[in-house]
Design a protein that fits this description.
About 65% of the residues lie in helices and about 10% in strands. The protein is mostly helical and about 210 residues long. Strand 2 and strand 3 form a beta hairpin. It is elongated.
Length: about 210
């Protein structure tokens, strides 16, 4: 997975739950199975948080919570701007073989203004339409071996499927049948997010916020 996709996931996880400790970020990201589809392992998560802090995108607070020391992270203004830039890029940039960035960006789409997200999805649709048109005109049989031509057919089928999904998603957003506001969804009682919310309020109190 590209370094900027790792940065996107880490900045997004912090923005969703800040102030939040490193273990909670690790647990949340692993619940998204990022170790599978994004190849983001636990060690990369902690190293990434440290790097983002050094770069000024996050701020780390070392707190004493119930007799134990805990490192808690919050986004800086630069981090929030970088997060929006990365989400927009992930939504708009089309790859015929790699959709990891889009999966990450769409999962974090509630963190950008709804009108900005919709505009980016429309731009992605336009780019996908161009890609489908290009793939629909494969090389002549004499220009490529048969198995390579079958690969192009696969790429075309995947692009057509994504385009259909994207058109439906945009239609639902414009009609108000799909909301990008994550607060409209209430997690089940067993969701660990409830504990993270309780911890967040305690961290805010410790930080004097």
């Amino acid at each position: 997975m590209a370094a900027h996709d790792t940065r996107l996931l880490l900045l997004g996880a912090v923005a969703l739950f800040e102030p939040v400790n490193g273990y909670q970020i690790r647990r949340e990201l692993l619940s998204w199975t990022v170790d599978d589809w994004a190849h983001l392992n636990p060690g990369s998560i902690y190293n990434g948080l440290s790097t983002l802090t050094k770069q000024g995108f996050l701020v780390r607070h070392d707190l004493e919570d119930g007799g134990r020391e805990v490192a808690v992270y919050e986004s800086t203004s630069e981090g929030r701007a970088e997060l929006e830039r990365l989400v927009v890029a992930g939504l708009e940039e089309v790859s015929v073989v790699d959709r990891k960035a889009f999966s990450a960006a769409f999962g974090l789409v509630p963190l950008v203004p709804p009108e900005r997200a919709l505009r980016s999805l429309v731009r992605r649709r336009v780019a996908l339409e161009k890609l489908v048109a290009q793939l629909a005109e494969p090389p002549a049989p004499a220009d490529a071996p048969p198995h390579a031509l079958r690969t192009v057919v696969l790429w075309l089928d995947l692009a057509v499927a994504e385009l259909g999904w994207l058109r439906e998603t945009i239609e639902q957003l414009k009609a108000g049948r799909l909301s990008l506001d994550a607060s409209t969804w209430t997690p089940p009682a067993s969701d660990p997010g409830w504990q993270m919310n309780a911890d967040r309020e305690r961290y805010r109190a410790l930080l004097g916020g």
